[in-house]
Amino acid sequence: MKRITVIGFAFALSTALLATTAVAQTTAPAQDQALGDYARKIRKDPGTVKARPKVFDNDNLPADDKLSVVGQPNTANTASDKDAAGAKADADQARKQAEWKAWQDKLTTQKDQIGLASRELDVLQREYELRAAAMYADAGNRMRNSAEWDKQDADYKQKIADKQKAVDDAKQKLTDMQEGARKDGVPSSMIE
Predict the structure, then answer these.
(1) Does 36 share its domain with 101?
(2) CB 144 within 8 A of CB 109
(3) DSSP state of 65
């Protein structure tokens, strides 16, 4: 009894498989034929079906060439992109103008400091010349106050040397600042 059940089950299973295979074989040529007819129809009259865009996936991506998309741009996005790009360009230009103005202000301040230090140096040199002229004009004063004059003379010469060094340092700083401004792209009309 067991043998009959196993054989019956095996027979039923094999029959079902054969039936499924037969149905698949009979329907496959019909599908191929319909697909072939459809392809021939498309080749004869390409206007009947709207051309689909080519779809790229990992299997058909070009490996040694770049991917290029050609077609009509989306005008709504293009206009907003242009507006965004224009706004960004305006913002960049405004930022550049602000940076250039800051450089110009720094350079103007440095030039003013150089001018002030130069005037102070000029005043010190004139004072020294006036005192020296007064000292050497009176021989008696020169004899009585020679030690004090030597001390004042050394003091004035030291002040003049210090002020001259400050002017030279300020001029060097201005030169360095101008070079930094040139490297940052500041126009020469704003640097000078």
Answers:
(1) no
(2) no
(3) S
Q: How far apart are the first and last CA of the chain?
A: 114
How many Cα atoms are found within 13 Å in the side-chain-facing hemisphere of 35? 6
Both tokens of residue 68? 């290029």
Residue 145 inside a domain? The answer is: yes
CA distance 62 to 115: 67
Is the domain of 34 the same as that of 109? no
**Cα separation of 55 and 77, whole Å?**
22
Name residue 16's amino acid. Answer: A
- 113 Cβ contact partners less than 8 Å away, ≥ 6 residues apart: 170
**CB-neighbour burial class of residue 167 (10 A; exposed 0-12, middle 13-18, buried 19+):** buried
Amino acid identity at 188: S
Residue 17 lies in a domain: yes
Q: What is the pLDDT of residues 58-106, one digit of tens each?
A: 777 777 776 666 666 555 555 566 677 778 888 888 898 889 899 999 9
State which amino acid sits at residue 131.
R
What domain range includes position 117?
A: 96-192
Torsion, Cα 128 131 133 136, to 10 degrees, reads -120
